[in-house]
């Protein structure tokens, strides 16, 4: 019976930690809270509000969100229009133009093969 009680409290701690972590809260802190308070800690983890700033920052770091260049709100990476300000988001790939050396009549074939490969 005691093992079942300890397992139940541990399970409540794990679930509390996972739920809180998904809401942008400290997973370890909520694990401890859920383990100490059992089902009450689990209920608290379920009703606590999201830390919206932490959730958005995490999504930004994962690459699933980006900032609108006009209003600086977080929007989905695939968005072509900002849902906050309505601005069109033109997101071209961030690649710099590639400069390709062109063979001049003054350059020899050895230089061309060395810099351009076997052509």
The secondary structure category is: mainly alpha
Rg calculated over all Cα atoms: 27 Å
- Helix share of residues? 40-55%
Using DSSP, what is the number of strands? 2
Q: What's the overall geometry?
A: elongated
Give the ordered list of helices and strands: HHHHEEH
**Major β-sheet, in short?**
2 strands, antiparallel
Q: What fraction of the residues are assigned to beta strands by DSSP?
A: 5-15%
Please work out how many helical segments DSSP would assign.
5
Mean pLDDT: 79
User: Which strands sit side by side, in order, in the main sheet?
Assistant: 1-2
Number of domains: 2
Distance between the amino and carboxyl termini: 79 Å
Low-confidence stretches: 92-100
InterPro entries: Znf_ribbon (IPR059113)
Transmembrane segments: 30-48
Keywords: Membrane, Transmembrane, Transmembrane helix
Region (Disordered): 100-119
Describe this protein's structure.
The chain has about 120 residues and is mostly helical. It folds into 2 domains: about 1-55; about 60-95, no CATH class. Helix content is about 50%, strand content about 5%. It has 5 helices and 2 strands. The chain has a two-stranded antiparallel ribbon with strand order 1-2. The N and C termini lie far apart (about 80 Å).
What is this structure's SSE topology?
Elements: H1 2-22, H2 27-37, H3 39-47, H4 52-62, E1 65-67, E2 74-76, H5 109-116
Antiparallel strand pairs: 1-2
